[in-house]
Queue: 3 jobs
Job 1
Amino acid sequence: MKKSLFALLACFISFLSHSQVTEETILNDPDFKILEATAIAFYTSEAHINYVNISEEFFDKVGESFIIRLNQGAIEPENFKNWIEKNLEKTNFNSLEEALSAHKQFYNSFLIKRDGQKVVFSLLSKLSEKYGTDIDNADISSSDIVMDTFTKYTLNKIYDVLVEKNF
Amino acid sequence: MKIGLLKIWIKLDFTSLSEAQLKWQPISNLLEINYNNNQELFEFIRNSNPEVSIYYFEKYIIKNTTEEDLCTKQLKQCEANALTALINEVAYSAGGPEALIVYRIAHFFFNKSIQTCANNFEACVANS
């Protein structure tokens, strides 16, 4: 009984402390500042911009027959090779060699982008957990003040930088 | 069968409704299973209504229509790029530990991109 009461009290205190978290709290958190600097550096980096340009070109050429398979691991090199060998005529590539070369370029830029993204995601996850988000059980409807603050301030800032760069 | 839907099938090169449904299903499943909540642009996926799904598929992904003016073609291309980028990001991370973060960030950029497409379209029409 005592244990239950203690657990309840701990939950209540945790709830109270998290319920007082405001945007300002997040914005002043040194970890958020690190996250923001890392995210801006990543999303405005040459590697990321390069990836976006290459992927647009690649998807434009490979076409919708491929795009609708993206959730089936279609971009993995072996899967792409198998698919393109049978579906070259559905794409805008002129030859198998051209398609494989374009995919290689796309996939390499994707891997570079993915590594940079991982660092941002990791910082975001840690900060969300710090302010009480249950990462493992969250879904799209879950409230997440860190994510909301990140979107409102950092992502908008990033977008403005990208627009300035004429991207 | 509605004539409008038939026209879309022809444009999309689908031979039947079931084929159209089958081709759409991977994306539909992915988003429906993982993100079952109010994303207004993806209402169609929640419903899994093939007619509506195909409409959006046609609107955002299919670009090679012949009868449209330059501004509309550019708009379609721009929207297609935005949707493809979203699907690519979400598809790769689906089911993984970072899926939700990826989805939220990808969706932010998708909304911004769609807005930029609309702005560019307006500017194109004004200048043409």
Job 2
Amino acid sequence: MTAKNGNRNGTTMNQDQLLSVAESLVAQAASNEQIEVACSYGRVRSLRVYEGELENMTTADNAAIGVRVLADGREGFASAGSLDPDVVNQMLSEARENAKFAEADPHVGIAEPDGVEPVAINLWREEVATTPVEEKVQIALDLERGVRSADPRITGVRVVSYGDNEGSFALASTAGIRASTQATSASVSVQVLAEDGDKTQTGFGWDGARRPGDLNIERVIERAVSRTVDLLGATKPATAKVSLVLDPHLTSTVMGLIAGTLTGDRVIKGRSPFVDRVGEEVATPLLTLVDDATDPESLGADSHDGEGLATRRVPLITDGVLQGFVHDSYTGRRSGHGSTGSAVRGTRGLPSPGVHALAIAPGASGNLDDLIAGVDLGVLVFNLAGIHSGVNAISGDFSVGVEGRMIRNGQLAEPISECTISSTLQRMLLDTTAVGSDLTHLPSGTSAPSTVIGDVMLSGAS
Amino acid sequence: MSDDLTPELAADVLTIALETGGELAEIFFEDVEQASVNLDDGRIESLASSRDRGVGIRVIDGERTGFAHTADLSAEGLRSTARAAAASIAAGKAGSQSGPLATVVDFQPTHVEPGEVQIHPATVGKADKVAALRTAEETARSRSEAITQVAARYAETRRRIRVINSEGLWADDDQTRTLFSVNSVASGDVGLQTGNETVGLSMGYELLDRYDVADLATKAADRALTKLEARPAPAGTFEVVIGPGSGGVLFHEACGHGLEADLVRKKASAFAGRVGEQVASPLVTLVDDGAMDIEWGHLAIDDEGHRGQRNVLIEDGVLVDYMWDTIRARQQGRTPSGNGRRQSYRHLPMVRMTNTFLEAGVSTPEEIIASVDHGVYVARLGGGQVNTATGDFVFGMVEAYMIENGQITAPLREGQLIGNGPKVLTQIEAVGNDFEMGPPGTCGKDGQGVPVGDGVPTLKVTELTIGGTAA
């Protein structure tokens, strides 16, 4: 154990050690049992600064294990926040006990190797470990100072945080799967307060990267500040039909909601508005959506999915036509399509199908300014609020709070708040009238251009 | 509980934690066992268990905090974690320690009465829990052919904590929570509509004696069926009557957060600097009460070892006080209010709500509804989002009706309720005598979730915006 930076504790575990913990449990499988074991180990640091001083700092190591047992088509799961041998063995017995009470389903099971070769992606950057902690504190201090000095109307910064992580993950199963990865990440975030007279506004900015040196602090400052002060004095707009102009971040949010309905579990349970619509034109031909965890440019990239299968490029919508859904091994078996290598999971939870690295293909309509110039009556969206309660992924109904700037005759106009926009996810795909050429890789792992969605109801004053 | 954590070891660990000049050091031990059973798509899909045990060590020096946590409960693991916490506080600090180091005071155990648990959930067979979910499914489906999907969930948590600090505090608590939830989907001409009923209390398996599973399933199914007849929610500004119970989430989100002393300090609150001012209609008394037995947000002690208690925040419309954790209370030279909470031993505590509610008034719900010519009755409010600095909020209406000529009439499809918390407080025109707590909630703040309760009586707001789809 090294005491670099003087604040590390515990004994670290690498991929090989994790894999051997997983294998030791898998080796205990009875003849009628399938066992899958996921283990992870992470070293985390997070810190906050406030008014030029370090406010708090956390350093810790996290271990976790998740054990899935299948016996006679019944599934049981148990997890723990420790890799101590007694805890690990207790989880195996718990998972076995749980499996006895589940009900059988012939499609339930762990992933079977499917011959797809994983792509080699290096997700590890040594700099996360070697950068002195003082430099990490300085990143947060620079961010706070940058935000405060960017505009006289910025009156405070509620939270400025920096965090990083070095993590290893391993998975072994009775199907012969052995997978392991290691990855680093670093992120910053800031919550900004602005005042002008008796008007108050808040805004948020963040960035993520594989190492601290790749964080773009200037961009975080610019976006957080402009999106906050530009909302000062926002008023409730008149109710009207409008076009929404979405920058790459907001496009990613909206298209992410849609991609969330294209998952195998929703489809087999009839809980997606797009069930039975493969091959149909569900969107404007301007839209192409792919889930591609093999793209090393994406922060969502990974060589393996949550069940240890190789990730692959999964087309979702091509030129407006629905191509299919993302599947894990269960929904893949049940639907007959096979897994698309799209299982997502934390070590402590069961896998389920999901999108790793959504990519919305760029169009030919230029940048955000070009898109604004082409709109007669619209809203440049800054924030969407209430997405959890306002989007029904079963029916597709969409009604969320919005803040932003009105657009009139191609020009930005007054800021607005205390209003909602409503449409349906289905209509928004068909009503996308322009796709920008400004493709941006976002810290969420999604890559997206700016877009325009027409014919949306803006509800404000009667 | 960790019997290895003797007073001698605790004192040693705290002394190490104070070595870089902290004023206060704290050991937070936690052992959480959870189990859940899920029924979906006609099948008991999976049972899951989890175990989480570890220690978080915190050092406070003025406004600065160093923190480290570990799942390694050995004496060496704790000492090493204390050193990491002490190093964290020293990082980036100018100059070396001057003056004497703080010392550890002899521990004085706090007498704590944990919440009463009649039937420990872990002693109930898994087959019984499976059977309860089955009953829920069959009952919901039996309501109508139109009920096409049912999902139900049972979950239990036992959380044992011990808080020890260098000022002599030593307190244990044992918290049990049990939850049962039913979701149903009805199919009709207007597509798929959903209905939910969830109950959760700080108690054991006796939750299912208190509530009849079939009754919960019936409510969930009927809510979905009602919405099949619903018309689109209108768009625009209306008089709104909020029914008892679930409307409490609005006051939790849009007012409660602004009364948390950490947000007040950073001026991220519309209520900063307003103690003693009339901030609400005189009909409004807003309370946060961690000592409310059996409610979802109940705690005998908070996660800093201080007793849960009743705190009046707004009384007859006047702002009385904020909520406090240890750090903010120390800085203000006052006692904490039992609101220092954290998601787990891996997280730092901060000011959090417990059970937050608006006290009952004198009007009957009937007379409140009768006073509205043209408005909206929100029977159940769903999740929402709020900007704590401005108080602007958006909440989903999961069950709502038109009010026409003083009568509740047509059901409405889902829509959003938009407004501003501080403004709503001044626009409350009537408060009912029918107080209820709402369904169990999880409050998120800075990435940490903790269980909270909230409640309201029927109340009338003079103007709120409904974001519906009907033009």
Job 3
Amino acid sequence: MNLDRILDVLNKAHTGPVYQERDFNLGVVTSVISSKIEKHGLKGVVDTENPIGSDDDLADRIYQAGFEAAVEIGLLCSDTSRAIRFTAEELQAAIDEAPSEFWLGDGDQRVHFQHRDLDDPTPPVWTVPLSIAVSEDVFVPLVQGLASSKVTDCLEGPSLETIYGYPLRSGSPYEHLAGRYQADLMYEAVRRSGRVGMPMDAIGSSTTHYGLLGGYGMEGGYRPKHDLVTILSIADFWTSYESLFKLTQTYVTGGEHISASTWVMLGGYAGGPEGTAVASVAYTLLMIAVFQGSRGGVPPFDLSYMGNCGRRAQWTLSVANQAITRNTRLVYHSVANQVAGPGTKMLLYETLVSSITMAVTGVANVVGVRSAGGRLTDYLTPLEHQFGGEVFKAAAGMSREEGNAIVTRFFSEYETELMTPPDGQRFQELYDIENLEPIPEWNRLYEEVRKEAIEAGVPLD
Amino acid sequence: MGESSDYANLQEAILTGDATTATEIGDEIVANAESVLKPIDVAAAVIREVGNRFGAGELYLPEMVLAAEAMQAFMDVVTPQLKAEAGDSTLINRGTVVIGTVQGDIHSIGKNIVATMLSAAGYNVVDLGVNVVPMEAIKAAEANGASFIGLSALMTTSMPYQKEVISLLEALNQRDDFWVIVGGGPVTRDYAQDIGANGWAPDAAVAVQICDRITSLPSTPSANDLIYTGEQS
């Protein structure tokens, strides 16, 4: 970690231009994105019939628009009401300084993160699960089940709903305790699964910096040399002291790797798919620059159904991925946002589509699956994660054209249900927790969709 | 300019978020029309349509915010005339909503959308921002004479603070003073009911429906086991 860059970011956060919330959101974000769409001829380029396009020139124009937007927008620090802005030269230097490969974990569980190109057979990295809330009593067996899968490379979540039986409250001392407590539970789970040394993202149960302060870089906690600190942001082009504390905590504990990632809202201040794609690129570059991210990425999140597996979100995701992949050497990271719950075919179809899109557009690392949209406690199982990892890795090396042909076949299986997705069932209902095996009905659905994927051309066997 | 033409222009001004034109049309209506009730109905219908189209993904957040601001500009002009026509009715003041994202949570977009929609629907909205400490929400509701407290939580770890607001109201013997409406991505109807909320709003349109429904009730707020959702509206 570069201290001079940290100090520069902190200084910008305290001396940059001042904005009120509305003026920044509408007067800067919306205005700048609109002007870049106009300047780079991006009106009317959206093609939801072909969500994975193969137009390199379009990807390059999206990138250029995003780079310029990043320079003009910056990230607004909510605690100081000041924008952290870089010159074009500073931004380019930060992008050039980011690694194109790095290793995490130790022993036989080391994992190689590396930049991937379009249509690239280089194996991507599969991290599971997202920080979905889980009951304390099933946390360890669930993580054990997730870590036991051969396709799993790293762990991030889930998130504890309670700690020692008490509700986990954001920003409270409970969250501070949860940092170390989650590390203990994660290590127990990887020990049981025989995957000691597997890298982890810190810290699933704590969105604020308190969890990191309580569980990273200390004896028995998450390991600065082997694990990754996850820094998310809060809203389009905003950041906060919480995130900046995570940056400084990583530095003072000798940490080396940060995941600088968050969401951009499709239908939000950046507008429709083309604007959101530009914003996705801009926000990614800014997150990398502000937080010295070893990996980074800002996928879209469609406000109309709170997910990103629909056609227009997949188009946005695809073109933004291609823009970053073609124009940088970043270790690009992404996330699918499914909305259906476990125990349903819809979740598997959403996972199939999004995994292919990300694999063929250069994504190096995915964290997933967002089972049931992450809305419901205990609504995630190892099986959909197994499926997502299988498809993500098998699709690496397919061309964008091949990927597009496959995903367009499967939208019709679920797109009418995006607004009213099925919740599915809880882990406790879909798994024999003693043996960590899915119940026959859930396994049957998995086998059926897997067979459909193979028949469509995904080389899963 | 004829009446129907005025209304078409008014619809257009709100739909396109043109606050200046909405103000001018409002001035003209106040100067020339016998009643402002009809144009207010027209404007309200447009803003409902804007909300519905936003919910369906057909309009985006900037358009909705600007439309709400145009609506507000129009209402600022016609409200004195409305008071003269309708007196102190809910047409003029639909009540005050104190709204915020709860402690430990700094997500703002969802809360902002709800605040915008409520404001456009005629509610006086006091936006406390994000990371709102439970007692701060209660004090603000008291200070502003609010009928509603709206609490957004986007994380399972911030949801306990929604419950904390209700617990504090009960401990202070103030539970009957406010309707508490909760929402946010991980907040389910069952959770809202479990913590004793009066309303569960899975999206901004439903938040407005709930407030409208409660506002139309003849009785004052009461801490009972009723929970209002869009399904009943």
